[in-house]
Amino acid sequence: MYHIFFIYLPWFFAMEHLVTDATPNLHIMHSFVDDMIPFCEYFIIPYGIWFVYIAVSCFFMYFKGTDEEYRRFAWSLIIGMSTCMIICLIYPNGVDMRPASLEHNNICARIIKLLWATDTSTNVFPSIHVYNSLATHIGLVRSKALENNKGLKALSLVTCILICMSTLFLKQHSFIDVLGACVLMTIIYYFIYVPAEERRLSFRRA
User: Measured over all CA atoms, what is the biggest interatomic distance in the chain, rounded to whole angstroms?
Assistant: First the structure.
């Protein structure tokens, strides 16, 4: 699976240069929910944990998951990330909610400054950070290796929720970006994890 990221990382960084704040017709993502969420630098901790969460989960699914579980997990990441990138190409988007200055000068604030120095505020809808977290959690909880391990399932759920929240509290994403990732995950889940026969039956009932 790791060759996937050797493909997507260059693609993502290329997008960061293609779609910038100066891009014509850049759509700014914003909702009233965003105005209700305060900035909190401490959420950089779960935001950064995302990288560990994804990497460890990929290793786990490769070594502990069945071939079928691993394939479905890999395809959910491939299709989801590809869809997010294509949407950003067709529909250039970004956010403008980052505070002009940080109130505190603690370690979390300094890490955020480093993040903002390298990570643009564009290509945010749908949120890849959120989508990959959801896809990873679903892959883990559906794994037979964790079938009876309620503790690790709960840990994965809490980690996933905190990561999703971190994108909002750090003003990296709008609530719309998070919602878009949830909708995308729902659609992809239906086609990857729901058996074909069950899908056909649901269409017949409709």
Answer: 59
* Encoded tokens for 112: 């955020």
More confident residue, 28 or 5: 28
Contact by Cβ (8 Å): 170, 42: no
Mean pLDDT over the full length of the chain = 89
Residues 159-168 have pLDDT tens digits of: 999 999 999 9
Is the pLDDT score of 198 beyond 90? no
DSSP the chain: -HHHHHHHHHHHHHHHHHS-TTSTTPEEP--HHHHHSPP-GGGHHHHHHHHHHHHHHHHHHHHHS-HHHHHHHHHHHHHHHHHHHHHHHHS-EE---S-SS-S--SHHHHHHHHHHHHS-SB--SS-HHHHHHHHHHHHHHT-GGGTT-HHHHHHHHHHHHHHHHHHHHTTSS-HHHHHHHHHHHHHHHHHHHS-HHHHHHHHHH-
Residue that is written with structure tokens 């390298």 in the block: 118
Contacts of 66 (CB under 8 A, 6+ apart): 144
Q: Are 84 and 130 in contact (CB under 8 A)?
A: no
CA distance 133 to 57: 10
